Amino acid sequence: MRKGCLLVVMALMPLMALAEGGEAKKSQNLVVKGLMWVKTLIDSMAVANVDRSYIEQPRKPWAVEVRTSASQSRLDMEADWNLADIREAWIRSETDNGFSTSMGAWVGYRGYGFGLSKELTGGEGSTLSFGAMGGSFGINLRINSYRSKKPDLRFYFEGVQDGEADMERANLEDPIRVRSLFLDGYYLFNGKHFSYAAAYDQSLIQRRSAGSLMAGVMYYHSSVAYDDNSNWPLLLAMRGVGKLKFSQASVGAGYAYNWVPARGWLVSAQVMPMVTFYNNMKTYTYSVVDAMGKNVLERLIEDDFEVSDGESATWKITEREVRNTTNRVNWNFDARMSVSYNWSGSYLRLYGHYNRFRYSNDEGKGHMQDWTAYASFGVRF
């Protein structure tokens, strides 16, 4: 009986292996079919309802780019002070990553792709980007981070000596850490004749000049932190604020135009005013305490404030309060420009992008400026 069962099992094993192989092959076929369906969808969406006399689709769908860029991210933070015998006093911290250059690469299929750049000069920083562009729509994501060790501190007093101002460059042991996420999407009302992808990733080619009204949405989130013990002078100057997180969402409408001065050339420009309907800010405030546990900021505004030699080495930062603030409706704008040239299997692009974001609360106010200009050379395959 046992021998008979063994013979049956041995006879069924090849059939079982064949069945398992068939299931694996079936699963692989489903994956391949799914990928082909996505590929066909992307190919068709890129040229759906497009006038081919205005917009051309390159025969080779893939592209890889080498990018070099120049950029600057600047954060201005301002703290208001009320001091005796002085009507107005404020301290402004201006920090940026300097005029920096970076090198990176991008790879994509028909306008869908990823890019990564690393900073070469001006400090520590990196940028990760993702783009998805169809015939009448587009989505862009950019994640940027940098560190700044030398913010400029500007002091201004009005009252006893009107208009007195001074500026000093701080040298921090622990850098200010800035991380930002930028996400935007748009819709083109003249996608039949105007191509945004032709200007900003060359997955399509604009053959004749055209413009389009466009609607867009934009989301921005940034965190700024300098809450290290060694940074207590900066925290005192900013009235205890040591970390900021702010998020903004905006909607707007604008206009973009693609100018084709000669075959292969394209000059594109876009301006989009926007209304910021969501503007939320989270402020982390800290106390700088001495060896006796007394608040140094309170000692600072006293007339008999004195610091003995080496005393500040014992000062520590302790978190005091987290405040959530919803700011009023504000305005913003998004501006871009590019110049590109297409060969049969490659292209060259120069591109510029500028954004500005504002915030305010009881402790102070500020704004973040971000601009990028880069050159890229791409090869299609």
Task: Offer a quick outline of the entry.
The protein has 381 residues and is of the alpha+beta class. Helices cover 16% and strands 58% of the residues. Mean pLDDT is 78; it is low at 158-163.
Give your account of this protein's structure.
The chain has 381 residues and is an alpha+beta fold. Helices cover 16% and strands 58% of the residues. The protein has helices spanning 2-47, 197-200, 232-237, 296-300; strands spanning 55-56, 62-83, 86-96, 100-109, 112-119, 124-133, 137-148, 152-158, 164-169, 176-188, 205-206, 210-225, 241-259, 265-289, 316-326, 330-342, 346-361, 364-380. The strands form two sheets. A twelve-stranded antiparallel β-barrel has the order 2-4-5-6-7-10-12-13-14-16-17-18. A hairpin with a 4-residue loop joins strand 5 and strand 6 (124-133). The radius of gyration is 29 Å and the shape is elongated. The N and C termini lie far apart (64 Å). Residues 158-163 have low confidence and may be disordered.
Rg over C-alpha atoms, rounded to the nearest angstrom = 29 Å
Largest sheet entry: 12 strands, antiparallel, barrel
Q: How many strands? A: 18
| Largest sheet: spatial strand order | 2-4-5-6-7-10-12-13-14-16-17-18
Calculate the terminal CA-CA distance, rounded to whole Å: 64 Å
Helix content: 10-25%
**Percent of residues in β-strands:** over 45%
**DSSP helix count?**
4
Low-confidence stretches: 158-163
Instruction: Give the overall average pLDDT.
Output: 78
The helix/strand order is HEEEEEEEEEEHEEHEEHEEEE
Quick one: overall form?
elongated
Briefly note the structural class of the backbone.
alpha+beta
